[in-house]
Amino acid sequence: MTKQVTPARPHLRLGAQLLQRKSVDAIIADNEGMEPGQQLRRTLNVWHLTMISVGAALGTGILVILSTAVPMAGPAVWIAFVLAGVTAFLSALSYAEMASHVPVSGSSYSYAYATMGEGIAWVCGWCLVLEYAVSVAAIAVGAGQYINESISVFGLSIPDALMQPPDSGGIVNVPAAVIVLLATLLLIRGARESAWVNTLMVLIKVGILLFFTAVAFTAFNAGNFQPLAPMGVAGISAAASQLFFSYIGFDAASTAGNEAKNPRRDLPRAIIASMIIVTVLYVLVAVAAVGALPWTQFSDSESSLVTILSDITHQPWVALLFSVGAVIAIASVVLTVLYGQTRILLTMSRDGLVPKLFGQVSPKTGTPIANTLIVGVAVATTAAFVPLGQLADATSIGTLFAFSLVNISVIYLRRNRPDLPHTYKVPLYPITPVLGFLFCGFLAVTLGMETWVAFGLWMVIGVLLYFAYGRSHSVVASTRQVEHRKTAAAAPDASISQDSVSPGHS
């Protein structure tokens, strides 16, 4: 009998490995077949999921990015919000269908793995790291100004040295780092606890935005909308590209697939409902803000809405109330987007593309503690030292790329796996996913050259990491190679090493 020696680390050829897909059936089987101590707990219903999605999106564009978008689009900033919202909504419809097909925590990373192969899946996952982790840092950066507005009522202030990153005249952004670390500690306690805290924060921020709208409309001046688009179509599209950053959070709900009680039914509902809520509130507040304050008077401050309220009411308590609510709103976004990042890395870890440490779940809390701590500390450090504008643009381009892949994934599964169960279908197929892809491409090309260069460097780093770790540790590639060797050694006396291989990868 010939002794068969099994290599310790089997590999496919590079081209074959990059194109190797992980079937939808395998993705679902792997997630359902985890050992009890390593499973995430299914505790979230459609209300929790909707609040996660709203919590991740609502607030950022209005509270932080608005004051930089108005000078670009003028009074037509509300049109820029609509353009960005339509782009996001088209992709949200595709996300909803994919979530009904692949109800797991991997979001667009898992969708790409099932349709376009490991190479594109890795690129998508790396874009999601940019989207989630960097956006958390960008969001947290905007909290400092609102904290200062809150304590200014008492004659106090945080010095710029402790509220701005080095490039903005400070040393370190302490409030941003603190908010990220507090969210990290809450996420470690458990998904259900985090979801209830997030729900409370979402209700508070919806309340303060409606409060702002009611006050701003008392000073509404229709003349502030003339001329509507002083910078032309180019200004509107440039603002829309930046404001797209405000909508990216809706896909955070799709990262809760392994913790949802009924993911096939509830994830599509949560995604679509959250997009409607967020878009309506963004446009409403943008119209109210420009109606109350001429667009030429918007400053670079992240707290323009507080300035409007103060000018209208001349009451310090109003500014205090809104500023405190704004800090809570920003904290909600930080919490939910940070949650999404940890779940993406957990899924990638279980596929072998990032270290196993990111995939370990605590039996006590049902959360990936090490994963959450690593991500939290890294994001807090980024938020403390990197300016908001650079972070927001970098996040947008990564998100647009990931959204484009989701639209393509819908078309692939409709053509190749029409038998898959689903609870939601994209309307007007294939027009909707094609338009979603084209809209994402349009906004991407309007981003500046510096953003594209930064994105290119990010992709180069991602490719290097894949070859350094992911290529040699890929579970799917290893499984395929073992199967090929078994087929090649089909003689009756062949002795094949029975490595532990998940049957779901076939």
TrEMBL record:
List the transmembrane segments: 46-70, 76-98, 119-148, 168-188, 200-222, 228-250, 271-296, 316-340, 369-388, 394-414, 426-445, 451-469
**What is the top-level taxon of the source organism?**
Bacteria
Q: Name one GO cellular component term.
A: membrane
A Pfam family (short name) is AA_permease_2
GO MF terms on file? amino acid transmembrane transporter activity
Q: Which keywords appear in this protein's UniProt record, sorted alphabetically?
A: Membrane, Transmembrane, Transmembrane helix
Write down what this protein is called: Amino acid permease
Q: Which organism is it from?
A: Saccharopolyspora elongata
Q: What is the lineage of its organism?
A: Bacteria, Bacillati, Actinomycetota, Actinomycetes, Pseudonocardiales
